[in-house]
Amino acid sequence: MAKPATPAAAPLSGFESLWDLVDVIQCITLRTRPERQREAAAQFARVGLSDRVHFLVQEPDAQDGKRGCFHAHQQAARRALELGARRALTFEDDVEFTANFTPFAAARAAKFVGSAEPWEIFFLGHFPRKMELTAQRDVVKVRSMDGHAYLLSPEGMRRLCGLEYRGDQARPVRMGWS
Hints:
It contains five helices and five strands, in the order αβαβαβαββα. It is an alpha/beta fold. A five-stranded mixed β-sheet has the order 2-1-3-5-4, with helices on both faces. The N and C termini lie far apart (61 Å).
């Protein structure tokens, strides 16, 4: 006998201040890992993004997984540019919205990316290597690696598309404020 379906929980609210500023939302996933796409879809449903996320399904790069990941991020940036995005949000399929990502945090991110302050990439998930203060107390300028959730401006999209893969994923590339 089949179990009755559990009704889906209502999405958490309060994140719209950030989501409404974004033109394109994408999630990179591998064709060979459908369970990760399902788990990511559940995460997006939690924060009200179910209908907005486009999954970029990739074939694995059997010779160099880092290279495949790098090119997938470039593909996401290229697609956002082709769609005319002013702001594009990219996730990897292991996304998890933690308790620290609150509506307040989303509003603070929205305040920064919606301001006149020039920026190219705004990390929501990454491994920072160096941090500097900005005029907005709760936003820092970083040198980072392994960005797995981030917003790009058109200039950031163009810069990412123009990078060349060199085989060293951990090489810190400063893609921040001018």
